[in-house]
Write a structure and sequence with these properties.
With 162 residues, the protein is of the alpha+beta class. The protein is built from three helices and ten strands.
Amino acid sequence: MAVTHRARLSPLQAETSWTLDAGEIVERRGAHERRFGLADLKALHASPTGVVLSFPRARMAIPALTYGGGLRPMSATDSFEPFLAALREAAHAAAPRARQRPAPPRFLGAVVWVMSLMGAGALGLLGFAAASGSWALGVTLAARLVFLLILAGAALPWLRRR
């Protein structure tokens, strides 16, 4: 039995459909078609907003949202949730060694960006302080930024929990 999920990725594109059929996942958008065997699946990352399938040479993203009337995204969970359940079951049967895990948390990337900006700010502060001759003040202020950087780094293991 073929299970299908349909979504419009953009208001300007044709509707895309993903079908599970006989150990394959087929993506169709207009006349374009891509087929991937689930036996080649390397990883499946699922979240409430979509799923990403990783194959040896390609990736496939399947969103849970669609564009309906107008330019507003709408939820398509009525077809996405049964499709995702069937996809997980078929992937487990066809590729038992594939990693099936939830997608990484949404805030992890933002925290890493803030940490990198704080590190760059601390280095910039040290550079400007050394150039102006007030090295002690620069070290004091940069040490406070580095302390905040360490605190943000301490929160990373909790953000990575599933």
